[in-house]
Specification:
By secondary structure, the protein is an alpha+beta fold. The chain has a single domain, classed as SCP2 sterol-binding domain (Nonspecific Lipid-transfer Protein, Chain A), CATH 3.30.1050. The protein is 39% helix and 22% strand. The protein contains 7 helices and 5 strands. Strand 1 (61-68) and strand 2 (76-83) form a beta hairpin. The longest helix is centred in the first third of the chain and has 15 residues, at 36-50. The chain is globular. It starts with 11 loop residues before the first helix and ends in a 10-residue tail after the last helix.
Length: 148
């Protein structure tokens, strides 16, 4: 059941399969409830383990992920810093971003689980990029995104 999922404790491929198998209405219900923060934190905690330093080269960037659709109408923003061949994440953004990616919580779940194509999401306006769009197109190549 999706409400019991903790992406930090699951294999990324298992989480991707869970997202695939869960109806959108259930994803919406869970992400609108008390488990939202645990799920988002778990995803972001895992991101550095999926980072491909060999593909990043000399990339240095601060990226903000703004995940919307909270009940209060606000967003959860996480900060990703790519520098020196490392990827570090924080739930407290405090640096000026080179890029801000904004998308709904459901689209975010689909993106990080290979259940959505990032280019298609941009074209359809489901993911918005403010700042360095070249970096936005490169982000998916910097991670081993699990396939369901």
């Amino acid at each position: 059941m999706f409400a019991d999922a903790d992406p930090a404790l699951m294999e990324p491929r298992d989480f991707a399969r869970l997202v695939t198998a869960t109806p959108v209405d259930e994803l919406r219900r869970v992400m609108g409830g008390p488990h939202r923060r645990t799920i988002l934190d778990g995803i972001f905690v895992r991101m550095p383990t999926l980072f491909r330093a060999d593909r990043a080269g000399t990339t240095e960037a601060v990226l903000h992920w703004s995940v919307g659709d909270r009940r209060e109408g606000t967003v959860d923003t996480y900060e990703m810093v790519i520098a020196g061949g490392e990827c570090v994440l924080s739930a407290r953004p405090d640096r000026e971003p080179r890029l801000t990616l904004t998308l709904s919580d459901i689209d975010f779940l689909k993106l990080v689980s290979s259940n959505a194509n990032p280019v298609t999401m941009f074209v359809l306006g489901r993911m918005k990029a403010k700042g360095d769009r070249g970096l936005a197109m490169r982000i998916p190549t910097l991670f081993d995104i699990p396939k369901p």
